């Protein structure tokens, strides 16, 4: 049997690594800027549908408070100054606009159950919603989809409204959740990672639907899928993969 290739450490690929901040203020400013950039990127990719969709990012100092986009504002126009700081009970602590209370309650429940998670993404995409309508998981039929192999879950019920604790429980320890008849939710240890997982899950759903329409997809076997996930499925790998995308909307100021 040929030797397995040894992965090259990400830090040796010439990419800038996630920054380490000396102060809470610097960490907060960076997190808010990345959150605003991510919202603008999702707008560019067509992942806002009316008032639906949120990204939340845990505040680096007040761990039961989260930065979030204001209700009813277009993602594409948002800057860091527009973001709200909202506590775990849905009260706006900083900012002059309202938050989507029902959607935020789901994010807060996920953050509470997963203290290591920095960001939660719940946005709209046609392929993720189509796969959710089928009540299916992402199949390991491409290298990219293998990043989610045995690392995402399905909430296989629809109640007509988001249920915070049930959603958080269904997510469990994984990076992504398919909400049947609703769409995708992803998490990460940075805004960049969480948004990358959302975009990758949406793309993987697209390929899966196309492949099924064309014929019978051939899955990657368990061992190879697990090895691929170990190589490409970390939040650090997601952070690196996201950087070229964020250049589309990164602030130049």
User: Quick one: CATH superfamily?
Assistant: Class II aldolase/adducin N-terminal domain
Strand coverage percent:
5-15%
- What count of structural domains? 1
Largest sheet: 8 strands, mixed
**First-to-last CA distance:** 53 Å
Spatial extent as radius of gyration: 18 Å
Could you state the order of secondary-structure elements as H and E? HEEEEHEHEHEEHHH
InterPro entries: Aldolase-II_Adducin_sf, Aldolase_II/adducin_N, Aldolase_II/adducin_N_sf
Pfam family, one: Aldolase_II
Domain Class II aldolase/adducin N-terminal: 33-209
Organism: Streptomyces avidinii
What can you tell me about this protein's structure?
- The protein has 253 residues and is α+β, with helices and mostly antiparallel strands.
- It has a single domain, classed as Class II aldolase/adducin N-terminal domain (L-fuculose-1-phosphate Aldolase, 3-Layer(aba) Sandwich).
- Helices cover 39% and strands 14% of the residues.
- The protein has seven helices and eight strands.
- The protein has helices at 24-44, 101-113, 126-134, 164-171, 191-214, 222-232, 235-246; strands at 54-58, 65-68, 84-87, 92-94, 119-123, 152-155, 176-179, 183-188.
- The protein has an eight-stranded mixed β-sheet with strand order 4-3-2-1-5-8-7-6, with helices on both faces.
- Helix 4 links the parallel strand 6 (152-155) and strand 7 (176-179).
- The longest helix has 24 residues, at 191-214.
- It is globular.
- The termini are far apart.
- The model is unreliable at 1-6 (pLDDT under 50).
- This is Ribulose-5-phosphate 4-epimerase/fuculose-1-phosphate aldolase.
- Belongs to the aldolase class II family.
- Residues 33-209 form the Class II aldolase/adducin N-terminal domain.
- It comes from Streptomyces avidinii.
